[in-house]
Amino acid sequence: MLVEVLTDNRNRTVSELRSIFSKAGGNLGEAGCVGWMFESRGVILVSAEQVDEDKLTELALEAGALDIKTEGKTYEVVTAHEDLDKTKQLLVSRGIAIEGAEINMIPHSTVPLTGREAERVLNLMEQLEEQEDVQRTYANFDIPEAVMEAVA
Asked: Mean pLDDT in the chain?
């Protein structure tokens, strides 16, 4: 897990995060210790209902996109960090409505989780999101939709 934090009191925040991780059965590592597991990428979301996948693939590749994934009713166009704006502008100029675009930390590999492990990790993510200094969290777990619905 990679956690982005913005704080005015580093000691307080580190203590609170250490406590959250400890209660969840994990531990808080040093700053940057899992950064190698993630890569900064641009992610553009496009509704699958508004554009054909082949057309989107053609336009995205023309703009320099690295990958296109289907996530339910949404396409995710993955770009290099520095190509996010260029790719987004090209898609918009070709009449493609963008649902969202942001820089994300994408894991190099994922770990499948089910059952009790999945429940513990989702609980940990929820606790981190409630912590006021946490800006964003990134994780490399893969929990099937059915398991996520059951846990929720």
From this structure: 90
Longest CA–CA separation in the chain, Å: 51
CATH value of 38-107 in 1.25.40.10, 3.30.70.980, 3.90.550.10, 1.10.10.10: 3.30.70.980
d(CA 88, CA 152): 33
Structure tokens at 88: 């987004």
Distance CA 54, CA 58 (A): 6
pLDDT score at 132: 93
Q: Residue range 141-147: average pLDDT?
A: 83
- Give the burial class of 1: count Cβ atoms within 10 A of its Cβ; 0-12 exposed, 13-18 middle, 19 or more buried: buried
